[in-house]
Design brief:
This protein has 422 residues and is of the alpha/beta class. Helix content is 31%, strand content 28%. It has two domains: 205 residues, Alpha-beta prism (UDP-n-acetylglucosamine1-carboxyvinyl-transferase, Chain); 210 residues, UDP-n-acetylglucosamine1-carboxyvinyl-transferase, Chain (Alpha-beta prism), CATH 3.65.10.10. The strands form eight sheets. The protein has a four-stranded mixed beta sheet with strand order 25-27-1-28, covered by helices on one side. Bound molecules: uridine-diphosphate-2(N-acetylglucosaminyl) butyric acid. Uridine-diphosphate-2(N-acetylglucosaminyl) butyric acid binds next to helix 1, helix 5, helix 6 and helix 12. The site of uridine-diphosphate-2(N-acetylglucosaminyl) butyric acid (EPU) has 25 residues, from helix 1, helix 5, helix 6 and helix 12.
Amino acid sequence: MESLIIQGGNRLKGTIPISGAKNAALPIMAASILCEGETILRNVPDLRDVRQMCTLLNRLGVKVERDETGAMHLRAEDEMNCHAEYELVSKMRASICVLGPLLAKRRKAQISMPGGCSIGDRPVRLHIKGLEALGGDADLVTGDIVMKAKKLRGAEIFLGGAFGSTVTGTANVLMAATLAEGRTIIESAACEPEIVDLAEFLNKCGARIEGHGTPRIVIEGVASLHGAEHSVIPDRIEAGTYIIAAAVTNGELTLKDCRLEHLVAFIDTLRKVGLNIEKSDKGVSVSSSRRLDPTEITTQPYPGFPTDLQAQTMVLLSLADGNSIVTEKVFPDRFLHVAELNRMGTRLRKEGPTVIVQGVKKLIGAPVMASDLRASAALVLAGLISKGQTRVQRMYHLDRGYEKMELKLKAVGADISRVTDE
Ligand code: EPU
């Protein structure tokens, strides 16, 4: 296993290029199952999760190759295998994104039921409810969801749940509905930019989708889809993470390919806390006033404050002059980073789905254990400002979702390196 070693204290200065969005790339790659002919995707980040999706698609008969420019070519060649096995699904929950495409195109899908994970309970009931409304029959067989359909028919589907809509559930129903007969209306659809990117890709392939980006998506089914060329949107969560890196190190960073319009709630909060975030021809520039104000944040589905930036923002608020309150309304148990951050000197007190963040003067480096992707990013941010050395163990969590993180940080002045554990 690998770890990151960070010597804290350096101010970050320079430019960081933002990679393509993991959570847009994964469902778009899965959508290639629906298409006849070749799809070419640009700006697909080179990540562990993306490589896992390549392996899964390969097993499902989709040929996936990167060319010399980095563009990814996908072509469904063999429709025999419809089974996403436990071995792959347990490594990457986003494997569930093949459920809708397999059911719509091959009329059969068998997918190992994803269990809970370190960010909490992660049900897929809404995915199945939506696909059943389109005409799929679902069964649970030895831990696998098995879905079959003779034919899919458009329907009106409500995808809201106790914690808002579902992002990958919306992706699954949207993908399946493109090939259903007639009109599908998804109410309480997820509005995330990654869903908009998926819908735009599908429309390039010949789908007829309207309303994406709003809670009401209308899909007129078509007989077939063809491949298309598409460039994946930049990763708003990676951008948000580096915005915080600039702020906590009292640095000055410019982010290339960062879309502020995808981060409205986050930017609004950070400006209130004391960050200067401006758009220029070169990208988005970030610097901070030395004094940070405390604030209250509540994570919500898009366009609210993203849960995927909750852990990282907690590090920033730990440096504020006073107490902040962070409430998690998407994954109420997503707080495994709290205990690890406290080992580095933060003062975080968890009360149910809320954490009270007491501002502190300094953090102290320590060996810490990454528990999930975004928690790991928070530990790296804490390491960048801590006195002494921080060792972030279980680097593979970060490699799932941040492309070349240590190289990008090193290039702007961080003292950071990857080591192999003995
Ligand atoms: N939910 C249900 N029933 C369902 C599905 C979801 O109650 O059938 C609940 C969940 O338990 C949760 C809420 O709805 O409380 C939202 O979950 P959602 O289904 O939207 O999450 P997801 O689609 O599994 C995606 C991202 C996550 C991101 C969430 C929320 C991908 C591949 N994953 O997950 O990304 O946190 O949306 O924005 O798009 C990450 O990148 O680190 C990550 C975890």
